[in-house]
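Look over this entry.
=====
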Amino acid sequence: MLAWWVTLAQSAELSDFATVDSSGLVSRNGGGGGMSDKEHQPVSCKAVPGEDVIGHLDAGVAASRVAQQLARRRFLGQGAVVAGLASWPGLSAWASATEASSAGASVSGLSGPLVAKPIPSSGELLPVIGIGTARRFDVASTEEELAPLRTVLRELPILGGRVVDTAPSYGNAETVIGELMQALGNRDQLFLATKVGAGRSGVEAGIAEMQGSLKRLRTDHVDLMMVHNLAGIREMLPVLRQWKAEGRTRYIGMSTSFERQYDDFVTVMESEVLDFIQVDYAIDNRSAEKRILPLAQDRGMAVLTNLPFGRGRVFKQFQGQPVAPWAQELGIQTWAQLALKYVVSNPAVTVAIPGTARPQYLVDNLGAGHPPMPDERTRARMAALFE
């Protein structure tokens, strides 16, 4: 039986996707993801002498560390996993990401495959790390604000990612994404997910909001449309199915960011056929493991997880501490990578969507999407750090 994940390089060799079994100092804003309810507080992450930078790597350190890890994996015979990665440039480019973005130059040099998982309803493979846009992409569209976001959206598919999660309730985010995608010309390289929450006011209001999303995103379809926080769920699901039949969305689903909605969420999961669900899930917020994630596996639903850094709690708890040596054996260089590897190594989770507005954080987050992945024993050891 094949593993529950494959790399994108390996996916080209699969004749049938359905056979994939689903069984210094740097300031870091915390997790993010699809939900816009609260912003995470900045956390300072110090370099410990003789140890790895914690939290998130800064621009120069991130590049050299990634290059070292990738070279090591390649030497150990994991060439298929890291093809194209050993040529990572000096990473000083990340310190001037804004200037490079303005000049239209690529700052990545990183093109190796990430671990990918199948969408159960179709078998389509998605890289396990995407980006969330709540708050981060809600900007006024000045060039100073747009430059790093442009770099993030340009580099995401180059680095092997695809999923961009947004919502009309995320302020100006859909408009900014639409403008940047159109300018970059990379809409077809991205898996675009958004939501509808206006269904609470009736079907017509929900439809108008969905149409507005397409207009703001400057596209004739999205890849995933979800009912946001169960708002008008029973009324809106027939509309989402109609849009899917018409090609205006490829997949449908629902989201919640509130544990108090879990009972109703489970009821809908048990009674409706959905492609995706989206829930909060972090190494220090594992309530979704009790019912939601096992049920998603049983029902054949893909899972997007937002707030994978627990609204910044992961960084606050370990501020000033290096990542444990045993975690570094998994290629984990930062607490962000540890938190993300824990989330995406759950077999039920398809993609994690940490809020991402800075190129260096994109690099760091995507670093968690490369093998090896922790086994159950190691995942338990990870979780114990937060108990």
Remarks:
- The longest strand covers residues 249-255.
- Residues 59-75 form the longest helix (17 residues).
- Residues 9-54, 58-111 have pLDDT under 50 and may be disordered.
- The chain has one domain: 18-384.
